[in-house]
């Protein structure tokens, strides 16, 4: 019997330890009211999961702040890059930069294994995330509109700096209420989610007002920019494909291989470049915010048992990853940006020749073709 007792006793101690350590076990009582009850029934995640996410966010922080910081610096200081279209690129880089400078809150919480910075840290984290996330979505929509007007109306569709400034001002006027209202708890509120190390708007409280808020913010911050992006880029692809088809038909009638006598064979066709740009932009937006949109709808209108702490940390990572990728997709693929980067940081060995920045068609088309490729 003695060996059996010695075996059972440690197991009993382990079971007792596990039952005590639920989520928020180390949260002060005064802060428990800010945590949705949904999370309190789950056991605390393993410490290794907290540390892994903390290390991942350190990588996100370095990659995004350096990349977006360089984009803001180069585009604002280089005279050749101070165009109306590039104002949107700078605004997107600022949104992504703003999104990532709040990650030290998450990193600290992760290494402290929970809600370490409390309600204040949660509110700062969620407010900056809402402001930058919705702002980035609307900026993507404006970039799509700018490229749509440039390529479909090359003579009168060129964006002016005044118009670009007004559109950027509208972006922030449109975005700010969605970030401020939950902060002041006028409509909706911010609450911790997942491992209680990150925060976003509360999609779990089962009230009519909260359901209406979730539905409204889903439509205004996801459906509206998504619809604009898909519409404008689909129109661009349709326009370019129609133009290329007309050129091929005319060349066939004239019994020549191509009407583009000065076309560089090494270059991709215009239709492929534009198609890749449209697919890349749409994919980035879908990949970053669709998980959050689906998660919020499930939390407000679906089966909340599907939202485990581990599952809800996935959207938090996807939107941060895209904030790291954006500067490379929107800017580093830009020949003039690479040329300026080469001048200021020759040790990067970019080897961009000034001839590569010349457009093979028109200046307006060059602006559009600087999209992801």
From TrEMBL:
Keywords: Chromophore, Disulfide bond, G-protein coupled receptor, Glycoprotein, Membrane, Photoreceptor protein, Receptor, Retinal protein, Sensory transduction, Transducer, Transmembrane, Transmembrane helix, Vision. It is a multi-pass membrane protein. Residues 352-373 are annotated as: Disordered. It is found in: Membrane. The keyword Disulfide bond applies. PANTHER family: OPSIN. GO terms for molecular function: G protein-coupled receptor activity; photoreceptor activity. SUPFAM superfamilies: Family A G protein-coupled receptor-like (SSF81321). Signal peptide: none annotated. This is Ultraviolet sensitive opsin. Belongs to the G-protein coupled receptor 1 family. Residues 67-330 form the G-protein coupled receptors family 1 profile domain. Residues 355-373 have a biased composition (Low complexity). Its main location: membrane.
């Amino acid at each position: 019997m003695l060996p059996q007792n010695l075996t059972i006793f440690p197991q009993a101690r382990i079971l007792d330890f596990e039952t005590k350590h639920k989520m928020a076990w180390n949260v002060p009582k005064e802060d428990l009211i800010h945590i949705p009850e949904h999370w309190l029934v789950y056991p605390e995640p393993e410490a290794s999961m907290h540390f892994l996410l903390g290390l991942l966010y350190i990588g996100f922080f370095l990659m995004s702040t350096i990349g977006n910081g360089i984009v803001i610096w180069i585009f604002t200081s280089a005279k050749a890059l101070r165009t109306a279209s590039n104002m949107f690129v700078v605004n997107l880089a600022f949104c992504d930069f703003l999104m990532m400078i709040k990650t030290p809150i998450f990193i600290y919480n992760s290494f402290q294994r929970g809600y370490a910075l409390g309600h204040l840290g949660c509110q700062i984290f969620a407010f900056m995330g809402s402001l930058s996330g919705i702002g980035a979505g609307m900026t993507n929509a404006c970039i799509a509109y700018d490229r749509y007007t440039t390529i479909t109306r090359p003579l009168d569709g060129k964006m002016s700096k005044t118009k670009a400034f007004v559109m950027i001002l509208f972006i922030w006027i449109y975005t700010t209420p969605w970030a401020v209202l939950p902060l002041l708890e006028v409509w909706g509120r911010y609450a911790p989610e997942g491992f209680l190390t990150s925060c976003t708007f509360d999609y779990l409280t089962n009230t009519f007002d909260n359901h209406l808020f979730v539905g409204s913010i889903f439509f205004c911050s996801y459906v509206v920019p998504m619809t604009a992006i898909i519409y404008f880029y689909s129109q661009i692809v349709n326009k370019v494909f129609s133009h290329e088809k007309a050129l091929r038909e005319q060349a066939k009638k004239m019994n020549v291989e191509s009407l583009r006598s000065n076309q560089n064979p090494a270059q991709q066709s215009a239709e492929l470049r534009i198609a890749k740009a449209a697919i890349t932009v749409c994919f980035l937006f879908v990949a970053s915010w669709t998980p959050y949109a689906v998660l919020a709808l499930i939390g407000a209108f679906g089966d909340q048992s599907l939202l485990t702490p581990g599952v809800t940390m996935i959207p938090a990572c996807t939107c941060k990853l895209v904030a790291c990728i954006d500067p490379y997709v929107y800017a580093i693929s830009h020949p003039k940006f690479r040329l300026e980067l080469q001048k200021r940081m020759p040790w990067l060995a970019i080897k961009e020749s000034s001839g590569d920045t010349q457009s093979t068609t028109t200046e307006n088309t060059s602006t559009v073709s600087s999209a992801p490729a």
